[in-house]
Design brief:
alpha+beta, Arc Repressor Mutant, subunit A, six-stranded antiparallel beta sheet, 28% helix
């Protein structure tokens, strides 16, 4: 609570001092998305003020969209922006980057080789003795998680794959540059999804929060799958727009 300093000798109302102190802490990065604020009762005890003053301070922050109240849990910083994207741009991460005027960053949280997974191998038309990479990446925009991607890449198509390449180029660029076989077309499946605890932790949202689930298969010109890509966009981060013309 060190970021909140008040001066009872000034004419500025106490609730505005608290509101401005929290707002400044959010702007300068002291407080981040989903950081929990002190309770109104804690503010009252520390600064010897009435509950009404603390409530008014948080109400002002709510009006500006800087915090949100979660019933039974408390008041949290909510600085994450929602991006509205035309549905045909969902795979184009640079669209998000241009909309935010900010560079995307990636972090590989898993990179390994799987020897056999019946479901994945069936979807990718792999034999039991073939190998397949699995990579999980969190993609950030303005230092906040934008989406979680999981890629399944048959080793026979990607001979020299490594973490550095995964972090430096997009999935689409990787297909174009690294795949032994050229990609030809993509098929996508969209559905609603509730994030698991592990997924929610990586994306900095509540457990079981709603998300957009997009499963993408990239095929070569013989209709053989080159990669399976699963993307999870928290619903509070991305909204898809569909324009219909008569």
């Amino acid at each position: 609570m060190e970021y909140i300093q008040i001066d009872k000798t000034t004419k500025e109302p106490l609730y505005l001092q608290i509101k401005n102190a929290v707002k400044t802490a959010i702007i300068n990065g002291t407080l981040n998305h989903m950081d929990k604020l002190p309770t109104e009762r804690e503010l009252c005890e520390v600064f010897d003020m009435s509950v009404i003053v603390a409530k008014n301070a948080y109400d002002e922050l709510l009006k500006e969209g800087l915090v949100s109240r979660i019933k039974g849990k408390g008041t949290f910083v909510t600085t994450r922006k929602t991006y509205k994207v035309p549905i045909h741009h969902f795979y184009n991460l640079e669209y998000f980057s241009k909309a935010a005027k900010y560079e995307l960053k990636k972090r590989v949280v898993l990179f390994s080789m799987i020897k056999y997974d019946p479901t994945i191998y069936h979807l990718l038309h792999l034999e039991a003795d073939e190998l397949c990479y699995v990579a999980k990446l969190v993609i950030y925009l303005k230092n906040e998680p934008l989406l979680l991607q999981t890629l399944y890449l048959p080793e026979k198509h990607y001979k020299h794959l490594n973490i550095e390449k995964l972090e430096q180029i997009t999935a689409l660029e990787m297909l174009q540059r690294e795949s032994v076989v050229r990609p030809d077309h993509i098929k996508n499946v969209f559905k609603a999804h509730n994030l698991t605890s592990a997924e929610a932790q990586l994306l900095k949202v509540d457990d079981f929060a709603p998300a957009h689930y997009v499963r993408s298969f990239v095929y070569d010109d013989q209709n053989e799958p080159l990669v399976l890509l699963v993307s999870l966009y928290p619903s509070e981060t991305a909204k898809w727009e569909v324009n219909l013309h008569a």
